[in-house]
Write a sequence for this structure.
């Protein structure tokens, strides 16, 4: 849903991407920098510093846009292994940010357990959105559908960090609902495309 917005946001970054490319940076270098920023964001959140966590998350998202731009500027630097590494780094980045949120919020109250339940649903929903697409593409099916792709999830995470822990439960509820609805959308989409074909044991 936010693909057009992401494209618009990328335009002002072209000079920076070109400078990094000319300086010898590769997409993998920028992906690694983004992954490191995500780890620092998770660490800050674990230490109950929402503001610092937000800053590092924004740096990570900046790197997430720049690595693709560098790959497009210099196709010779783009490799299948780099694309695979980028996808894995995205999953690890989400995991460490969510993990930092959990550690920073841990308590044994009823409200705390409700929050953790929402956290689990939001995290697993985020991962299942990506897994459903990867599994569909493994079956030769396009699966670029749904209302909570990575850009949308990152916007919700950024807003959550801006508003702080007091409102984080509501954002987790929204994130959990949107991600699992997206999983449903993707499963329905792929099932419709595969209608009548069936899956043998090797497909499972």
């Amino acid at each position: 849903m936010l693909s057009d917005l992401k494209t618009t946001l990328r335009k002002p970054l072209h000079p920076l991407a070109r400078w990094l490319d000319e300086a010898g940076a590769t997409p993998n270098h920028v992906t690694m920098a983004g992954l490191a920023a995500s780890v620092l964001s998770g660490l800050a959140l674990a230490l109950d510093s929402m503001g610092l966590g937000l800053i590092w998350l924004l740096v990570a998202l900046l790197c997430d846009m720049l690595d693709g731009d560098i790959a497009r500027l210099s196709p010779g630097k783009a490799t299948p292994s780099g694309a695979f590494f980028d996808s894995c780094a995205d999953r690890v980045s989400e995991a460490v940010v969510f993990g930092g949120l959990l550690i920073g919020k841990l308590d044994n109250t009823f409200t705390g357990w409700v929050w953790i339940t929402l956290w689990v649903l939001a995290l697993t929903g985020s991962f299942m959105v990506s897994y459903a697409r990867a599994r569909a593409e493994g079956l030769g099916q396009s699966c670029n559908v749904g209302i909570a792709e990575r850009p949308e999830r990152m916007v919700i995470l950024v807003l959550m960090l801006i508003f702080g822990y007091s409102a984080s439960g509501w954002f987790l509820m929204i994130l959990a609902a949107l991600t699992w609805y997206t999983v449903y959308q993707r499963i329905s989409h792929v099932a419709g495309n595969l209608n009548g074909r069936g899956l043998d044991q090797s497909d499972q």
